[in-house]
Design brief:
alpha+beta, 4-stranded antiparallel beta sheet, 1 helix, 21% helix, elongated
Length: 197
């Protein structure tokens, strides 16, 4: 009889320990879910629109818009990226008529962080390259043909900027203004921030 009591007591003790462990793991899972929900609430999705505008005096020549969707989150260093371009063949000449490829286009990186008073800090790295236009105004794009058909290698124009902006929801700023040293065209960068509802 004593043996039976001891077995029953041991089983009851094991059952209590198992219940305590289940309760602990359930509480830990609830706590983790609550933490995840709180973190998700702290993440603010943002839409950042970047427009490269080129002017000849007051006349607008081109407008190239790009949109990135990023998140303002204090816990991670999430960077939104856009890469858009083409690899252009450039003849290097020589005995073997060698060709090298140059990346031409736009590279944009954006990091966002929530600031004070409803503002967001945007850390932007922008790069844009293009084939330099000829005197006729058309872009000189080297076709992949025989080296004899290439009178010269193209000029490649490059614009680079690193910006740190503080913007509110719906705010637009025209931040960077640069002048092309060869033709005097002006490049202006316009940045708009919107929170995604």
């Amino acid at each position: 009889m004593l043996k039976n009591l001891m077995v029953v007591a041991a089983m009851a003790l094991l059952a209590m320990q198992a219940n305590a462990q289940v309760a602990k793991s359930t509480e830990a899972a609830k706590s983790a879910r609550t933490s995840e929900i709180a973190d998700a609430k702290n993440i603010v999705p943002l839409k950042v629109t970047i427009v490269f505008n080129e002017y000849d005096g007051e006349k607008k020549l081109s407008s190239l818009p790009y949109t990135l969707f990023v998140k303002a989150d204090e816990n991670s260093r999430f960077i939104g990226r856009v890469r858009m371009g083409v690899r252009v063949p450039i003849w290097t000449g020589g005995k073997d008529s060698a060709v090298q490829y140059q990346d031409i286009g736009s590279n944009l990186d954006c990091y966002a962080q929530a600031g004070e008073d409803g503002k967001y800090m945007l850390d932007l790295t922008l790069e844009r390259s293009s084939i330099y236009p000829t005197s006729s105004g058309k872009e000189e794009f080297p076709a992949a043909s025989k080296p004899d058909d290439q009178p010269h290698t193209p000029l490649i124009r490059t614009f680079r900027a690193n910006l740190v902006l503080m913007l509110r929801d719906g705010q637009t700023t025209q931040n960077t203004i640069a002048t092309d040293p060869l033709n005097g065209h002006i490049v202006k960068v316009e940045v708009t921030l919107n929170t995604v509802k």
